[in-house]
## 1
Amino acid sequence: MAIVGAVALLVTLLALGGFFLYQSLPGTSVSANASGTSADGEETSDMGVLYIRVIGESSDVFVRVPGGDVLMDDTMTQGQSVNYPTAEKGLEVTIGDPGAVEVFVDGEERDLSERGPDFSFTIDAQGN
């Protein structure tokens, strides 16, 4: 009976270790240059200038300051979201799979579901 308990404990510890190892891998969280947000109950007034949430399997997301710094170049997976509260110099955004994401600009949803792969758009500079 003690052997069965030891085996069950070992299996549990291995499963937990694997889970936490997976969570620590790069690409399983939102970029540090953006503020992560909860996907549920998000108020449109709290979404900032740009809010992207993956509702499909995954999508490549590229966000940069026009002619400047790359803020995000990552593959986001289902349930992940990213929020850019301000865009003082504007933002250039490219979405790899527009049908897999919800995009809000200034709190208003942009329907990208009919757009082709690698759809790009620009958000004008805002002094927030």
## 2
Amino acid sequence: MLKCAIVELAEAVVVQLHGEVDLAAALSFRECLDEGAKHQKPVLLDMTHLQYFDTSGVRVIEAFLPYAREHAGPVAIISPTATIRRGLQLMGVHQQIPIIGSVDDALAWLRTPPTGPDSDPGDSRTIL
């Protein structure tokens, strides 16, 4: 079962995820992401308390990214467990979204100017 909480900070919105993201929770997960993006600030997906995350969640994130980047700004994943981090890396998510150790580190990342020829804050920042 998935539970989420939206925490609005001055610079970003933290979507705190608790429980599991699987096929049964995919719609709820997308609704959480959409709710976070409504604040029109960068979205930080806090996976600290997430126990399970499968390909259904990856598909939701991939579908959400274009909308988020247009309407909210960059997206980052915060503090997944080692198992979830490894799954995200195997599925190539880390090539699209930075995986960052803490909310404070993510806020520092947001303050760092984008690098690269495109200078698109959603895509070209250095992934930690």
